[in-house]
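Service request form, structural biology core

Requester: graduate student, group of Dr. S.
Request type: structure prediction, single chain
Budget code: on file
Notes: please return the result as structure tokens.

Sequence provided:
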Amino acid sequence: LGEYLSKKDPFNQSVMEKFTAAFDFAGLEFDLALRQYLGTFRLPGESALIERIMNHFAGKYFTDNAGKSDFALPDSVFILSYSTIMLATDLHNPNVKNRMKPAQWLKNNTKC
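Core staff response, request fulfilled:
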């Protein structure tokens, strides 16, 4: 499903918009909303495809929580969501030899 939703084709993007619109993230903490969303499909392996999916999530989360969260812009939601996925990959992928330190992750997200 993640591969299909993340394709650049206009029809696939329309399906992605409708799929994402079906979620209600209002009042949910960021991490719970991200888990709820990502729990419904498997992310593709390519970073550009993940980016496309996270853009949809960020826009929906920001809209559902406008004025009720600490995020000033949808871009902030995007940066944190993408960074969280990269952190999970770093922690759980056996091919990663040099694990990210907490200070490195925090530094990458200081402008969120």
